[in-house]
Amino acid sequence: MSNENNARNNSPAAAGGPNADSAGDRVLHLTNEVCPYTFVKSKLALEEAAPGSILEIHLGNSESASNVPRSIELEGHEVLGIDQPEAGHWVVTVKRA
Amino acid sequence: MIIAAALALGLLLGYALQRGGFCMNTAFRSFVYEKDRSLVRAWILVLVINIIGVQLLTELGVLYPQVAPFFWPAIILGGFVFGVGMVLAGGCASGTYYRCGRGMLGSTGALLGFALGTAVVDGGALLGLQRVLRAPTLDVGGREATVFNLLGIESLGARWALLGALAAVAVFWLARAPKQRFVIGWGWMRTGAAVGLLALAAWLVSALAGREFGLSFTQPTVAITRFLVAGDSSGISVASYMVIGVPIGALLAAKAAGEAILRLPEPRTLLRQFGGGVTMGGGASIAGGCNIGHSITGVSTLGIGAIVATVFIMIGSWAMTWAVLRSERGRA
Prior knowledge:
- Chain A is of the alpha+beta class and 97 residues long.
- Chain A has helices spanning 3-8, 37-48, 62-74; strands spanning 19-20, 26-30, 54-59, 78-86, 89-95.
- Chain A has a single domain, classed as Translation Initiation Factor IF3 (2-Layer Sandwich), CATH 3.30.110.40.
- In chain A, 32% of the residues lie in helices and 30% in strands.
């Protein structure tokens, strides 16, 4: 992960790659990834996560920010929100089913 | 005048692709791996508009579409290789062009790879491979391999009964679509309608210049590459101006939405996308088309070759997505 991505994130678990914070929740940095890796990595991270835990997925292109939550929701997970902290940067917050 | 029309059409297409996030890599992958069908719906809508439009304009004597020969070994192998390549490149041929326009440098790498791959196979070092794989062709009793000829459908009534039935099934399925969630830019319906109408318009603009084919990306890419590298302008056609317009249109759309940002992937990803582009270009030049030339334009001529190529592009993308999932799972 580039420093640029880490600097953008103000979450305590932002030290690059999927990291666990104290609550067991995770942050996934995929701002420089494209389809299909955004989908594949989100899917795998959710598979590994504990039921009920929260995953924060950072995405860097509009296609992924629209397709990834739609796909995740149809898998039965709950999309808690999609924020756009700045242009070209979307944060999808998901609760694992 | 026609050149200006072709550039404008490419510009509008790039705009629509970016606004709609039209990605056939995602559409094809979702058949097997995802439950969301939004991009499949956009593609099916493009096909309905183009199959009906091209067939109608042909009946009216406006178009005389060229049906690509069914050189089956090249279609099957090239289609599969293209499908594998587009997963690694992070986008299909059209997807790579428009993402490159909005500043994704990984897609610029993929586009350079795509141009190299097409030129190596088409007239380059691997020309022999293309010739060997394209030698065996299948036809229907000496006539073009099209759906109508294969089914022995001759009369006007029977042709339109089949087209009407196909369109009815597609429209019925599209009409039952659930409301699309999390839309950024355009939803599937507006995207499919815009790309579909522009693809149909590409047939008409091409016909004005005496080119009897619709939208394509592979041949124009080879032509531009040869012109830039060797000064050979023999392959440059209206279609070349259309593809030049695509990244510019995408840049304008992305600028308006604040998404025109230079973005550099990790070195490994950049290399993967470049390699994917080379693979995609090689496959497309063997198969004689990409996700646009075969899976939209070719299918709208109802050519068997284009339909089989589309199936193998899908199979290639499913196989490669499976491999990516497996390797990422192993790494986790």
